[in-house]
Every structure is written in C-alpha cells, then in structure tokens.
Design a protein that fits this description.
about 350 residues; Rossmann fold; six-stranded mixed sheet; 8 strands; GDSL
C-alpha cells in the first residue's frame, strides 16, 4: 500500500466519522411525560417515605426499589430505550447531574385528572395526592426556562421533542366508585376529557408540535378491580373473565377522548396528535395469554402479594404474569404494550421510526 492510498483511506474514514458524529440519528431529542403511577419513574417515591429495601419493587430489572410501581421497567422506559434516550428523571428527584434537556417525567403515583378542588366541591373522597394533571403542567412551566431561553429557542427545541399526556384517569374512576354506580360514573367522563384537552392545548401554546394522548387500559381485567367489585354473578364477566361494565366504561371514556383528539386535530392542523390505544394493546394479553408467554391460569392474579410491606411475597416467575401488584402490570406486560405502541399497530398515527427494536 503506497503512501497516497494510505492517506486517502485515512482521510475518507476521518471524513465519514465526522459526518456520522455530527449527524443526529435520534427521532426525538427529548420526552416530557405526564400521568400517574403507570409512568411515574420516581416522583412519588422521592417525596414520600422511602421504600424499604425488602419491598420487591424493581426487583427483576433494577435489583432495588426504583420509584416505579412494577418489578422493572415501565412503558415509558421501554419507549425511551427504543429512541436512544435515557430513562426520564423524575421532576421531584432531578439533580444538576441529570440532563433534563433530554426530558423530564412529571407523572405522579396516585395522580388524578381532576384537581382536588373538584373533589372538595362535589363532596367526594379526596385523591391520594393533590398532584393532578394541572399541577404537573405547572411543574413543566417551572422548568421551561431551564430548557430554552427564548420563544425561538423553545420552538426549535420542542420541535424535536415528544410530549406524552397520560395515561391518566384510572384513579379518578376508582375514587368515584365509592359514591357512584358504573352508570353514574359516565357523568364524570366529560370533565376528565376536558381537563386532558385543556392540558394538551396549553402544551401547544408552550411550543409542543408532537404530542401523545393515550386512552385508558381495560380496567375490567385488572386484578385490583376484582377485589373492589367482588361480584359472584357470572353475567358480570365476559368470555375472557373481565368485568363487562367497567370495560364498557373505559371504552366510553376512550371514545370521548378520541372525539376530542379529532377536534384538536382540526383546530391545530400544524401539530401531530397521536392516540395510544392502551385498551386494545393490553386486552390482547388477557385474551390470548399463552401466545405472549403468560400463564393462562394466573392472568388475573397479582404476582406480588402484600406489595408495599415488609411481608410481601412474590411469585416464582414474574415474566409469566400480566399483573404485578393489583393495579399495575409486570415488566413483561409493559414491554409487550410498549412494543405494540412503538412498532404498531396501537399508535394512531404512528410514532417516528425508533432507533432500536424493543427486544
């Protein structure tokens, strides 16, 4: 090999390396997430009493309590990994060592769509936390000056960001269950949808151009609902063993939410609004559990008994269970749900192409 050839190879490799390093392969440069315990990565845990080590939250992946209400990663974690982003730091637990420019998580375990004032005004049991969706929106506004300095700067930055508003609303339904029948629960749906819509509109005003609004899960299939409802009537359950009335309620909520999203799309043709179909994404796991590697005889059984206490017991193989602790899913279930969102067909329209497959 002569000197000229060696020089040419060295120059070409250096040039290509420089081009690749300067190119940005990420579809999204930052995520901003709002919601409840389904996507809380540490907000509630950081300001409440610390979880004692024996509690098995986080045991399968993190090997210690991670602030997540599961044995491992959540949907938001799998989505972040797929797009080459770090796990989202919790707003209440952020530090100068964390790069909030790549996103922040505002979701708070126990959070409701409706604020505390609504519950007080209507004489309802108060939520477990006052960190409702509107409060989380206020947190976003608080840190916005740390993310971008001018309107032009913010427009450029948020154009490369994805905002996820929810899933949220399950806690509202469970709080109202103590005072209302399933039929009466439909009365609160317009208020919930309005609150989510208002938050979405504010985020558009703040500069968001691509935003996800998820529907809710099939609550009638959740292990915690069987405990709360405790019905022994065969006609209350569908062919798969889920509570019909509560799944119908969620379908009604999701339908109203999709109608609102369609109205938003017409009013804001310049932005992209994505609907995450959590309902059908999760329901398929209950309908054909064996196809996804789950134990068909334990699809409505929680893996973690007494989770949240020092006497918690954990099933022998969490990867064979859909449900983790009653209201929350296992990491195995979250992974499949995330895969259905990122790779299809449960996002409408689709997200941008991910950098990595969810394996």
């Amino acid at each position: 090999m002569n000197v000229f050839t060696l020089f040419l190879i060295t120059f070409t490799c250096g040039f290509l390396q420089n081009v690749v390093s300067n190119a940005n392969p990420l579809s999204y440069e930052a995520f901003f997430n709002f919601g409840d315990s389904i996507s809380d990565t540490g907000n509630a845990a950081s300001i409440l009493l610390p979880m004692p080590n024996p509690i098995p939250y986080g045991s399968s992946y993190f090997k210690h309590p991670s602030g997540r209400m599961s044995n491992g990663r959540l949907i938001i974690d799998f989505i972040a990994e797929a797009y080459g982003l770090p796990f989202l730091p919790a707003y209440e637990n952020k530090s100068i060592d964390q790069d909030i420019k790549k996103g922040v998580n505002f979701a708070f375990a126990g959070a409701t769509v409706l604020n505390v004032e609504y519950y007080v005004k209507n004489g309802l049991p108060l939520p477990d936390t006052n960190n409702s969706l509107s409060i989380q929106l206020g947190w976003f506004k608080n840190i916005k000056p740390l993310l971008c300095k001018s309107k032009e700067d913010c427009n450029i930055y948020f154009k490369k960001s994805l905002f996820i508003v929810g899933e949220i609303g399950g806690n509202d339904i469970m709080k109202h269950m103590k005072n209302k029948t399933v039929t009466e629960l439909r009365e609160i749906v317009p208020f919930m949808v309005e609150a989510i819509t208002n938050t979405t509109n504010v985020l558009f005003e703040e500069g968001a151009v691509e935003l996800v609004v998820p529907g809710n899960f099939p609550m009638g299939c959740s292990a915690v609902m069987f405990t709360l409802v405790n019905s022994n009537k065969k006609e209350d359950y569908d062919e798969f063993g889920c509570l019909i009335a509560y799944n119908n309620l969620v379908e009604y909520f999701n339908g109203q939410l999709k109608n609102s999203i369609e109205t938003l799309r017409q009013k804001h043709p310049e932005v992209k609004i994505i609907y995450f179909d959590y309902y059908n994404d999760a329901k398929r796991l209950y309908q054909t559990p064996q196809q996804y590697g789950f134990d068909k005889d334990a699809i409505f059984k929680a893996c973690c008994g007494g989770c949240g206490s020092l006497v918690a017991t954990v099933c022998s193989d969490p990867s064979k269970r859909i449900n983790w602790d009653g209201p929350h899913f296992t990491e195995a279930a979250y992974k499949l749900i995330a895969k259905g969102l990122v790779e299809g067909p449960f996002s409408n329209p689709s997200l941008k192409s991910p950098l990595f497959k969810i394996a």
